Amino acid sequence: MTSERELAQGAKAWPFEEACKVVKRLGGKTPEKGYALFETGYGPSGLPHIGTFGEVVRTTMVRQAFQCLSDIPTRLFCFSDDMDGLRKVPDNIPNREMVAEHLGKPLTKIPDPFGEYESFGHHNNARLRAFLDEFCFDYEFQSSSEWYNSGGFDAALLKVLAHYDEVMAVMLPSLGPERRQTYSPFLPICQKTGRVLQVPLLERNVDAGTIVFEDEDGNKVEVPVTGGHCKLQWKPDWGMRWHALGVDYEMSGKDLIDSVKLGARITRILGSRPPEAFTYELFLDENGEKISKSVGNGLTVEEWLRYAPASSLSLFMFQKPRTAKRLYFDTIPRAVDEYLGHLARYDPDDDKRMENPAWHIHGGGNGFPPAEEVPLSFSMLLNLASVCNTEDPAVLWGFITRYAADASPERMPILDELAGRAISYYRDFVKPKKNFRAPDDKERAALEDLLTQLEQLAHGSTAEDIQNQVYEVGKRHDYENLRDWFKALYEILLGQEQGPRLGSFMALYGLEESRDLIRAGLADELSKSA
User: Fold this and answer.
1) Tens of pLDDT along 346-375?
2) Domain range holding 310?
3) pLDDT-wise least confident of 138-152, 202-216, 359-373
4) I need a surface site. Which of 75, 278, 335, 439 has the fewest CB within 10 A?
5) Under 8 Å between Cβ of 335 and 313
6) pTM
7) Tell me, what CATH number does 81's domain have?
8) Is residue 42 a contact partner of residue 81, using CB atoms and an 8 Å limit?
9) Contact between 163 and 204 (Cβ < 8 Å)
10) In angstroms, rounded to a whole number, what is the distance separating the alpha carbons of residues 391 and 386?
11) Do 61 and 26 share a structural domain?
């Protein structure tokens, strides 16, 4: 029997390809720090968003794959850059005037505008942890402020000071002419105002571990680079952090490719090997534009979860991470049905199970994907909600149990969840766009023929029996392209251009109810009542 390790070594799914890079990096030996370190970063000036979820879930998938390939312990750090100075007041917070008085200060030194935590940074960090905990991620939260102020970065900061000229040689070519004149990798914290200062350095004292700069009041001030008196610009900070923590793996978006290269060079200057890197493509909105947290286009995690389970979002993140993808409401039904398909095909005894996205979505097989059978697709539930025009899941269950006698909310919790989500999606996205039309003469003749054929079918006829009749009627009425016949049925009976496999749908909805639906379409009652 093939072992788990052997299966993992032969797996081709991208998380295993990435995990193999970490295995090769470590050469089978546990690092001196005692574990392989995976990291994700978070800018806490805003709330967690769908990109945060994507980065953590993808990194978790790579970590799970690594754990199958190696016995080396692992840790996942979710690192918050909460010592950054706040540059602008977010639009979506209360007490904006109060926060404006503290611009430039580290986020952990700004009062919480919500009045719940000791600082704005602590508030957003708590939101991040709650967000990650909601999805049961296995991670360790890390705070930039705590690392700087506790002295955890002191040794690394002294190294940056000792290699100041080399770091500057890396950074200056990446800056514009004006920025080069005032740039310093060190950002001192003003001891009077508490602000993070973007000022040039007047002097450096490597032996004393200090820098000299001109303070906001014009006075020359000398401070240590250690103990939280300074922080680094974010790109040198990234490289310094990789060195100080010994990060082995970190992924980032396509927009940060140049930053990763700069950070990696700085890490090498400090004497360490930069982490294995993975670049993922960015998400696009409905118009093909890059999703921006500040613009607010695209889709939020909360919006996705209003209409579909988290597992479908995890699948969306798993699929083709190096390809730019539209992330909008119309992607949800397909993602749900694709997830259900992978779940149905998952076999814990299959040697190819690690290629199935369900393995990666559900903890690398540790908890095993749920074994529940789901007899209906999400798309079918949407169409059922559409013709029933209901917001009550119990109505859908009335049809479901008639179609699948052994189905029940208790026995099929996934299906029960999907029924509720389908109603929400139908109400918000399908119903407002429904556009019924009356049949033309050719379509009317074909519909009357289809009604006659369905009236002759016996109660309990299968979905295949019904589908065959739909096909035969379309052929009999000279539809050279049967797609035109099905499109007509969808537009006349469902008020939409696309729809389900009609045999399966009519078997679910019921033969008599389907006949009534056709009668209503022939009488033009559907378009008049819409």
Assistant:
1) 998 899 999 999 999 998 766 678 888 899
2) 283-365
3) 359-373
4) 75
5) yes
6) 0.92
7) 3.40.50.620
8) yes
9) no
10) 10
11) yes
